Each structure stands twice: as C-alpha cells, then as structure tokens.
Amino acid sequence: MASFIQLLVSGLATGAIYALIAIGFTLLWQTSQTINFAQGEFVMLPAFFVLTAMNLGAPYWLAALIGIALAVVILGVLFKAIIVDPMIKHGVLPLVITTIALSLFLKESVKDFYSSQAQPFPALVAPRDLHFLGAVVSLQSVVVLAVAVASVIALHLLLNKTRLGRCMQATAQNPTVARILGIPVGRMVLYTFLINGVLVAIASLLISPIYLAKFTNGETLGMAAFIAAIIGGFNQVRGAILGGIILGVLDNLSAAYLSSSYRGAFPLLILIVVILFRPQGLLGRAEERAV
Amino acid sequence: MLRTGFLVSLVAAGISLASTAHAQQKTVYMPAILELSGPGAVSGTNFRDGMLMAIDEINKAGGILGHKIETPVLDTQSDAGTSRAQLQKVLDNKPYVVFGPVYSGSVLVDMLMTQKAEIPEIVGGEAAAITQKNNPYVFRTSFGQQFSMPKIANYIRDSIKAKSVALIWVNNDFGKGGRDNFTKEMKDRGIKVVADISTESGQADFSADVVKIKGANADAVFVYLNEEESARFLKEAKKQGIKAPLIGETTLLGQKVIDLAGGAADGVQGHVGLTVDAPIKAVQDFAAKFKARYNYVCDHNGIKGYTAVYFAKYVTEKVGKFDSKAFAAKAHGLTITPKEEPGILMEAMWDKNGDIDRESFLGEVVNGKQKIVKILPMLSKK
What we know:
The structure holds 2 protein chains of 2 kinds.
Chain A: H1 2-32, H2 39-55, H3 60-88, H4 92-113, E1 129-132, E2 135-138, H5 139-161, H6 163-173, H7 175-180, H8 185-211, H9 217-232, H10 237-257, H11 265-277
Antiparallel strand pairs in A: 1-2
Chain B: H1 2-24, E1 27-29, E2 32-34, H2 41-60, E3 68-70, E4 73-75, H3 80-91, E5 98-99, H4 104-117, E6 121-123, E7 138-140, H5 145-160, E8 164-170, H6 173-188, E9 192-199, H7 207-216, E10 220-224, H8 227-239, E11 246-249, H9 255-261, E12 269-272, H10 281-294, H11 300-319, H12 324-331, E13 335-336, E14 348-350, E15 356-357, E16 360-366, E17 369-376
Parallel strand pairs in B: 1-3, 2-4, 5-6, 6-7, 8-9, 8-10, 10-11, 11-12
Antiparallel strand pairs in B: 12-16, 13-14, 14-15, 16-17
Helix pairs in contact in B: 2-11, 3-4, 5-6, 8-9, 11-12
C-alpha cells in the first residue's frame, strides 16, 4: 500500500506536468489551428533562461520571473508573430513542418550556446520527506502537484469565470461569429499564445529539477504531452488534463507492477486503443469535416 | 610604374612564402567520432576535451614524427547509426587512427568498418564484447567489463559482505554487457541477485524502479547506468530512503554524477577504473590542467581521451612511420610507463585483444567529493 501511494503521488506529479504542456497543445489548436511540434522545446528553453539569469547573479525567484517573462515574449508573442501568423495562411501542414524546424533550431541553439551537458536545476523547495500512511512522499512531488493543479484551476477560472475567458472560448468555437459580436479575435488568439508561454515556463520550473536541464528534454516531454492530448481529446482542455494524469500514473504503475522493460510501450498501447475506439479522445468532441 | 611593380612582386613573394610554409606544415589525419549530443554527451565531451588537450600539447611540442595532428570531431548524437555514417565520412579520407566513440553500441558497429579498412580505433567503450571479437584494430583506454566486474564482485563479497544484491542497469550495449558480466561474477561467488531491473537510456523517472529495489530488500544495490540516469536514480533513491549501500563502477562515483545528484551521491561506494582523484601526481597534474583550461572537473572519460592520444603517439614513434597496420601489430602486448611517455599518466599494458591493464581504485563519495580508499594493483602484476 505504501509503495502504491508513493507511485501514485509521483505519477500524479509527473502527470500534472504533462497536463500543463498538453493544455498548451489544445489551446493553440482550438484558437489558431496550430499544432506546435516545438512544444517540448518550449518547455526545455525557459530552464536555460533561468540558469542564464542565475549565472548573471540573479537569485532564484528573480531568475524564475525572468524565465517566465522571456517565455511569454519569445515563446508567446514572437512565436505567433514570426512563425504562426505568416505560415498559417498556407495551411496547417506547412505550419507543422515549420514548428518541427523550430524545435530543431531551439534544441541545437541551446546545445551550442549553453551546453550539451545536463545541468543541475534548483528545486522549488528544499528536499524533505513527508510520511503518509507508511509511504515516504517527497515534498518536491507534493509541491509540483500543488503548483500544477493551482495553475490548471487558475486557467479554468480565467476561461470560465471571466469575460476575457468567455471571449477566448467564443473565439475558439467560432471566430467568424465572435468577430461579428465585436470580440477582438486577433487579440484573443494572442492571449492563448501568452498563456501557453506561461504554462510551458511553469512546467519547465517544475520538471527541470527532476529531469535536469538539458537541451534534449523537449523530445520526451513534447512526445508525452502530445500523446496525452490525443488520449484526452485534442480539442478539450479538460481532456488534456485527464490525458496527462493518465499517462503519468500509468507510466509509474506499469513499470512497478507489470514490466519496467516495456514501460515505454504502455502509453502507446493506450494511444492505439483510444485512436481505434474513440478517435476524438476520452473527453474530446467529435468534429465533422467537409473533406 | 616601377613602384607598382615592386609592390606586386612583394605581394606575390609573400603569397608564395605563405603557401610554401603551409605546404611544409605536414599533418597526420586522426579524426574523432564522439557523443557530443544526446544521452552520451557528458561522456563524449569529456573524452573530446581530454583528447584535444593532449593534441594541443603534442602539436606545440612539434607533433608526432614532425607531423601536426589534425583531428576533426564528428558528433554521433549518441546513436549507433549516426556514428556509422560519421565514420564512413572520415574513412573516405583515409585516416591513420580513429578516436572514439565512447558508447559501446556505437563502438560495436564502427569497429567492423575500421577493421575492414585496417585502421586502428582507440575507443572509450567498456562493453566486454568489444575486445572479444578477435578484431586486431580495436584498442581501449579503460577497463572492459570482464576486468572491472570481478573487482567489483570481490568488493561486494569482501568489503560489503553482501549475500544478496539488487541490480539496476541501463538497457543498451554498455548496460547489457555489464549486467551479464556482473550476474556471472555474483553467481561464481554465491551472491544472489534478488532484483534485476532494466531501465531505458535517457529515463527521467526512477520512482517505480526504486520501489522495486526497496521491495527486494537486498544487502546491497549495484547501479550500472550512464551519467545522467545515475544522478536521477541517486536522487530518487535518497528521496525514497534506500538503506542498503549503493555500489557502482566508475560512472556512479564520477564527479559529474556527484555534481548532478547533489547530496544524493554521498555514501556511494565502488570500484573506479580511472579517476582524477587518484593519489598519483601525474593524474592530479593532468586534472589541474584540465580544470584550468575547461573550467570543469574532468571525469574518467577525459582521461581516456587524453591517454588515447599519447598512446597513439608512443606507438607511432616506436613504429617510426605512419603505418596503420604496423601500429596495430606493435600496440598488442605493449607496456608504456610514465617514464617513457609522461602523457600516459599511469603504467599501462595492452594485451593481445586490445584490452588495457593498469592500476585501479576503490572509492566512496564523501561530502560531494570522490575519495579513494584503496589502490588495486595491475591484474598482470598480482
């Protein structure tokens, strides 16, 4: 039982981070039909903003704020202005290919300008263990889970309880009607990119102490979040959350109770089953297409 | 007009002199294929930096037989397929000797090509299989697993006095080779392997693996992972409060792992084939030079890279010419002492398979530093 609790908490913490990243996938898809294959690298990069700021003498909290601010500007505003806006006119596929190129560019840039080696990254809290029903749970896992859940709740409140959020949802559901109703669609789309910038920066601060900051981190994270978004439903934020949690918990439990050798196969197995029997994802909405 | 003509002649003479000097600067092509990115980047960059330091030293002193060493470094991306493609590129330019790779999986692929081309390859891989294929062109500058695992097995039996052991290993050629040799040595000594856990290269989350290890309740845990995974494992092991001693072979006690794992590495024990903390003056001088040049502490792969170049230099000077086949023939059975070649750092002997024999160490991690507690003699001098 103690082991199960440990695995569950650890899996939930990892899954919550996957969920944060997966939400970014769904937000960008819903508002601008952007599938961002550089999303994993978007999570990798803020960690290096933070490390650079710390190397220049900034304390951790300030470096973290600088990291989030840079992520919002570079991975939000500039990404939309330089990559998405010019490419989306040509359709989804050219944009997808461009984001794949962007992911390579970001990865190689960090390798060349910072380091190819993994870097230790400070944790949000000092290492400490919590004892619960005989299980030893690290405070770090609990804090990761708490921050990720708080971020998701804040996003939920923003989207559902504020006028701004409802405008963003209207934009996502039908931009033409939203424009007729006087909603500044362009600005709403920009806001989703900014929110994605904040989410990836938070995910970066949470995952980097565990993964260590490394230029290749985006490969694993991007793939896990993409799978999570598909399992949960690519067009629903709550689907991305569910997909992330399922993936994180399943990874840990299958490695412990089934086979650690095949732990990488289980998420893919679920992905195949979901695509076969519920292609819109567990909580996703089926979309009809004219062609 | 006369003045213009004079100027043109002067420029022409300058260009001619420069080209002559360039033509006279003879070089020997000794490329390196290394893991500069991907999971093996720590190992590959350490090997590269040690190697380039030795090359600079040798070139400044006049090169090998009057030839400057020319060493382009190509990235394998820690992938055997890419490594093979990179090697093919350099083989087209007819190298004298090839350095690297470090990852055993890449070495096992590449060594077939260098053997066919009859080019000596000085590798950083430690998988036992590398030197068990009767390839006369492959040489190591670190212990193969068939030499290091008996030492670690004796340590577990005699110093830890363990009756059971849990084993966690990385599922690549390096890890599989280590796992097979380790389990054999445990069986020979009557020590039971109560958990045998494979992990993936690049794996980030070790919580499930540590839960399994805790459940196995072994007297000791043997950890055989690459650098970054070792650090992540140690953090998780500390988090979950594993009480059994954590034992490793070289990598687990490396300074990079210690730095990445933070305090989680304290208490780790094991056998160290190569270390900059060895109580040997030449090694410590090398470590200080390395730190001054690169601003980080070198791990065992840096020593592998550094000694690989001096090994190539010594053998070539003994042969007296740049002859790849003669190099391979001369290097087998050769012993090099620091007196004969200071760059070799410690006395080393290469056997008929290309395996190296030299002193090694038992160590532990104390307060974030590796501490050597015992020097083990060369196997051939026991």
